[in-house]
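ok so for the tutorial part 2 we go from a plain amino acid sequence to predicted structure tokens. step 1 is just haveing the sequence, like this:
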Amino acid sequence: MNIEDIQTTQGLTDFIQNSPTAFHAVHQIAGILAQSGYDELPESAPWVIEEGGKYFVTRNGSSLIAFRYPKEPQTLPPFMIVASHSDSPSFKIKANPEMKGNGYVKLNVEKYGGMLMYPWFDRPLSVAGRVVVKDKKCISDKAGGRESGYFNDPFPCNPYGPKSQ
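step 2 — the prediction. this is what the tokens look like for a chain of 165 residues:
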């Protein structure tokens, strides 16, 4: 591998490490695009798009669309799209999740996306995502998460999984 390949691989690894959720990934991509000269367009207002412009728009903090309008549009195909899917199988914490009993506090979760269950429970898990906060003036949201795992399943599953999976 040459130095460019190593740098590309390290950049991808850093991006993945810093993107435990779609909210984190969108935030990182928006920053990269802004540093690369892209302008953010507000979804709720009319857009002013100019030839040679580079733009992006986000929705709900969890999805992003970026595009360029070339200076000479007639030299390129009239419409091009590149897309990516930024969420993945995970456990989502339910509303009012706290369950207490037998000396433990548990969080009630639901699975999201197609997943194999058994690989999740023999390792520490952490919480990451978006937190919605209401204060006296407004409701706001922030992406957050933990660097290292701090939840464990007290009853680890068979690492090879049940025969049904």
